[in-house]
């Protein structure tokens, strides 16, 4: 195998809303996941509310895709289970967890800051000191073990007050609220955090509108592209401001990376796949890395009668606030075809023509390590900036044996293939600087709200109903990844 760079960063990743719990402690405000129920691969998660007449209700969809009736108020209801409320209690167990990460040999740990811990309502005049103190304690614990924090500033957790009373990111006012929040945390942790990611999987806003079996409406695309423009602007302003606070800050975008293949050699399929790359992957990458909208953007807007509202100076700000590195998640590839689909994949956030050359997880996600290599080489060729793979993993059922051990060879096999793919990409000239697996520890699934969809190298004793001790137990994959890190990716057997 090719040697990874000497200072390559190995680690893992979690998100505040999926790991921390303590949803109503120490002044934290509510976010969208706090009113999102549990679900499964077969049952959707719901957003709960109280309507204008005081009646409880639920609506399909999550985040800004959730639609609650006019006059309704987001609400936590007694008759539903909300898995993110407790999550896996990282809030109270972070020292134990970070010690385990250090035992694996982590040199980097990706986590997110919950905006609602810092500004509970999003529009507060002053930050919540308890929230600032918590993350300072987490970063100090990382420093104790020489682990570099990689901080996601926003990971699908806009304060609920901003969603309810301002309309969320459709409203340009959120740009100012976000920048106020980022200014506070960048000043607070300017000597503790080097790497910042402005928006997690920012491209999901529009990419999934035509990937889930139903074509989004023109209204939904109008909303989605407007949201993205506001988030691009917030990201750019944060980068520009951050460089003044600490010139050594390194900023990255974060893209939901999916490799799109044409399902056949029909030229129409090849063109359709390329258009999927443009709409799903390049659109956000071009703005955040190149600082400008791609030449194809007008075609995407015109296809849905979209008119993105921009103000004078916006495009100049986007150009000034370009990110330094490109980061992305990678779990699967997707087939694109213009033909009738006779063998369809259907699962959690997956839809389309089945690839006969690949196997699929219990949640319908294609196992495709070669797709990761393809993505790395294609993206590096386009942008020529350092890359990080900041999410990659296998969600699977784990079995605890009678002696308490967890033998997850399937997870080891998955990661072995993807480490090899990264090595091959490095051999082909890709400047890859970090790898953080998704779910270094078991956490609540974002898509389904399940615990049984486990990604971690560390088992957490909790089931889908929130029952369990929350005890942590290293799986076989824990010791395998420890060996990989110690050998800088050379010993993957």
From TrEMBL:
Leader sequence residues: none
InterPro entries reported in the protein's UniProt record: GH, GH_1_N_CS, Glyco_hydro_1
Gene Ontology CC entries for this record: cytosol
GO biological process: carbohydrate catabolic process
Source species, domain of life: Bacteria
Gene Ontology terms, MF aspect: beta-glucosidase activity
PROSITE patterns listed in its UniProt record: GLYCOSYL_HYDROL_F1_2 (PS00653)
Protein family (similarity comment): Belongs to the glycosyl hydrolase 1 family.
Name this protein carries in UniProt: 6-phospho-beta-glucosidase
Native species: Streptococcus varani
